[in-house]
Design a protein that fits this description.
With 325 residues, the chain is α/β, with parallel strands linked by helices. It has a five-stranded mixed beta sheet. It has a three-stranded parallel beta sheet with strand order 1-2-3. Helix 13 packs parallel to helix 15. GO terms for molecular function: glycosyltransferase activity. Pfam families: Glycos_transf_2 (PF00535).
């Protein structure tokens, strides 16, 4: 578990791990330079339970924290966990049993139960459960579907190290990039049991960085296509992805930048945080470049629901102008 200013839900997350019916584990927690009460909370549980192994240091970012913990972990199997989610008591035992029974699988996730800020059940419309078998997961990759919920993942440490761990370039979608790289060297799947309560709320990382996450996700899938075609992956050694306009040069062919811009623009229009941030400018740029317009007038109405009347008017003007042109 990596924590950065996670005091609000941290105690509940830690307690759900310590309450597992599988008890033989070390619990690595990196406090990644928090400025709230998170370090004190982590230290408190370390004093209460010897299984908790705290690492309190300056901020280095999530990917650096994850790679650090993978390297120093003592066990051959690692379970991921986030500081705002809750494990069911039998999560570890069920996933470890799966890996013991399926030695050809290097990663196993599980289904999750969505909860809100106060732990209330949520119904997220239009979201399917994660695929179960490796074959189903490969089909999901082809259509851009969900693969494995990151905080619900349990994986074999040696396999993660064999592919170089998490790649620095894919901030906020480091898990997708990792699953895509692992899909070529091991099997991945999910248990059809809701062993994790996954919290959704406006302040979570995936909401605050929706546009960057979308960009990285599209690029990660293009990098996967490169590897599938037997071509080198130009993202493998990057510390950060270049601007969208430079992606043609990165991949050595035209059309990549336009494809990424279009897919991201069509994806971020459903995110309030993205439409209030730089995702809106990307959407407008996509339209001015002659990109797909389907559903864009509904996006004008969506912006009004998001409380962004000025941006709604600007998008309507862009649509009218580009249509007239």
């Amino acid at each position: 578990m990596s924590v950065y200013n996670g005091e609000r839900y941290l105690a509940s997350a830690i307690e759900s791990v310590l309450a597992q019916d599988f008890t033989d584990f070390e619990f690595l927690i990196v406090d990644d330079g928090s400025t709230d009460a998170s370090p004190r909370i982590v230290q408190h549980y370390a004093e209460m339970d010897s299984r908790v192994r705290p690492i309190l240091r300056e901020n280095r970012g999530l990917i650096a924290s994850l790679n650090e913990m993978v390297k120093i972990a003592k066990a051959p199997v690692i379970a991921r966990m986030d500081a705002d989610d809750i494990c069911r008591p039998n999560r570890f035992s069920r996933q470890i049993a799966f890996l013991e029974q399926h030695p050809d699988y290097g990663v196993v996730g599980c289904w999750s139960e969505d909860i809100g800020e106060e732990g209330e059940p949520l119904i997220c419309h239009g979201m399917d459960d994660h695929p179960l078998t490796h074959e189903e997961l490969l089909r999901a990759i082809e259509i851009g579907g969900q693969l494995i919920c990151h905080p619900a993942a349990v994986f074999r440490r040696d396999i993660i190290l064999s592919v170089g761990g998490y790649h620095a370039a894919f901030r906020h979608c480091e898990d997708l990039d990792l699953w895509l790289r692992l899909a070529g060297v091991t099997k991945l799947g999910n248990i059809p049991e809701r062993l994790l309560r996954y919290r959704r709320y406006p302040a979570q990382v995936s909401s605050r960085h929706a546009t960057e996450q979308q960009i990285g996700s599209v690029v990660a899938r293009i990098a996967w296509e490169e590897r599938q075609a037997g071509r080198p992956d130009p993202t493998a050694t990057l510390d950060r992805l270049p601007p969208i306009a430079d992606l043609d040069a990165l991949f050595g062919r035209p059309g990549v930048s336009r494809r990424v811009r279009e897919q991201v623009a069509l994806g971020v229009r459903y995110s309030a945080s993205a439409m209030r941030g730089n995702g809106f400018d990307l959407l407008v740029s996509h339209l001015r470049d002659g990109g797909r317009r389907d559903g864009m007038w509904r996006t004008v109405l969506r912006l009004l629901r998001f409380g962004e009347p000025v941006r709604a008017l600007r998008l309507a003007s862009t649509l009218a102008t580009s249509h007239a042109a």
